[in-house]
Amino acid sequence: MRILQKIGIYFLMLVFAAVVAGIYGMLHDQISYTFSEEYFTQFKFKQFGIPWAYENPRLGAAYVGALATWWMGIIVFIFLGLFGFMLHSPRQMVLSLSKSFLVVIGVTLLTGFAGLALGYYQVNEETVSQYMQWVRPGVTNPIQFVRVGFMHNASYLGGLTGLLSGIAYLVVSKLRYNKSSQQDSLTRASA
C-alpha cells in the first residue's frame, strides 16, 4: 500500500513541479525583462513565435518564461522524484521532496543571478564586441542584451546544479532519518 501512495505522490508532485517551474520562469523573465527589454522584443518573442507579445511585452515575457521552464520542472522532478522513493514513508517523501525542490529553485535562482553578475563583470563598452555574434539584428543596447543572455544561460546550468543539490539534500535526509531511527532503536533496546 505504501508504494502505491508513493507512486501517487510522485505523479502529483510531477505536475506540481511543472506548475512551480512555469511560475518560476515567469518571475525570472520579469526580472530579466527589467534588465533588457530587447532580449525579448528582438529575440525571445520571435523565437517563440508570439507576435501578440509586442502589444503587452511584460505579459509576453511572462509567457516566454512559463514556456521555457515548465518542462525543466518535469525533467528535474523525474530524477528528483525517483530519489524520493528511498524515503521511509509517503509523508516523509512529500516533505523531503518539497524541501528538495525549494533547494533546486534556490540554487537555480542564485546561479542565474551569478550569471547576470558575470555578465556585468565581463561585458562593457570595451568588451561587447567579443559577444556581438550573440546580439540579434535591431538591438540598440547590445551590452544589456548580452548580460541578460548570460543570466539565461546560467539559469539552465542552475537547473542542473540545482537538481544535483536537491538530490544531495534527499540523500542527506535519508541518512539523517536512518541515523535517528538507529538511535531510537538503541534507546528502546537499552531501556
UniProtKB/TrEMBL annotation:
The entry's keywords: Membrane, Transmembrane, Transmembrane helix
Transmembrane stretches, start-end: 7-27, 61-88, 100-121, 154-172
Protein name from the UniProt record: Signal peptide-containing protein
Keyword Transmembrane helix among UniProt keywords: yes
